[in-house]
């Protein structure tokens, strides 16, 4: 009788352990891939003060003119931002990445929306990858 109960409990436990291992492996693999950098993103609305920076950071990677941002505990949420051009670059003391200072850029998207992306100051190069010489219409 005990073997039936243990077998019934053991299968779901192994499934959960396997799923957690898969999540950890997938997250670590994405974070360590070339060109990936930690970031925080907020949407700017004209005529309104900017919203607060999110508490948690995501990880982003450039794919051509698209900034692909992964967020969530398992990096399971993907948000693509089709970027038209770089509107502004600045340093921002309001957002921090641990003890590191942050650099921010304001990006204009293809649909006209403006977003502000912050990354550690030492990650400035991938953050500014998009240029104003983009040939979007």
Structural commentary:
It is a single chain. Helices cover 25% and strands 42% of the residues. It folds into 2 domains: 1-32; 36-137, PH-domain like (Roll). Residues 131-137 have low confidence and may be disordered. It has 2 helices and 6 strands. By secondary structure, the protein is α+β, with helices and mostly antiparallel strands. The protein has helices at residues 2-31, 124-127; strands at residues 37-44, 58-63, 66-71, 77-97, 100-109, 114-120. Strands 1-2-3-4-5-6 form a 6-stranded antiparallel beta barrel. 18% of the residues are buried.
Please outline what is shown here:
With 137 residues, this protein is of the alpha+beta class. It has 2 domains: 1-32; 36-137, PH-domain like (Roll), CATH 2.30.29.
Structural class: alpha+beta
* Percentage beta strand: 35-45%
Distance between the termini: 71 Å
Major sheet characteristics: 6 strands, antiparallel, barrel
Cα-atom Rg, whole angstroms?
A: 20 Å
Q: Structurally, how many domains make up the residues?
A: 2
Strand order of the largest sheet: 1-2-3-4-5-6
Q: What multimeric state do the chains show?
A: single chain
CATH architecture annotation of the largest domain: Roll
Q: Estimate percent helicity.
A: 10-25%
Mean pLDDT: 81
Question: Which blocks of ≥5 consecutive residues have pLDDT under 50?
Answer: 131-137
């Amino acid at each position: 009788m005990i073997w039936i109960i243990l077998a019934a409990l053991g299968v779901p436990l192994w499934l959960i352990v396997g799923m957690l291992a898969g999540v950890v492996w997938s997250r670590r693999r994405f974070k360590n891939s070339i060109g990936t950098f930690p970031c925080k993103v907020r949407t700017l609305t004209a005529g309104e003060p900017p919203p607060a920076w999110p508490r948690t950071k995501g990880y982003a990677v450039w794919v051509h003119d698209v900034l692909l941002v992964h967020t969530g505990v398992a990096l399971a949420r993907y948000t693509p931002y089709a970027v038209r051009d770089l509107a502004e670059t600045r340093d921002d003391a309001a957002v921090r990445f641990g003890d590191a200072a942050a650099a921010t850029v304001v990006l204009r998207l293809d649909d006209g929306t403006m977003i502000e992306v912050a990354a550690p100051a030492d990650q400035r190069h991938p953050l500014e990858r998009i240029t104003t010489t983009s040939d979007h219409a």
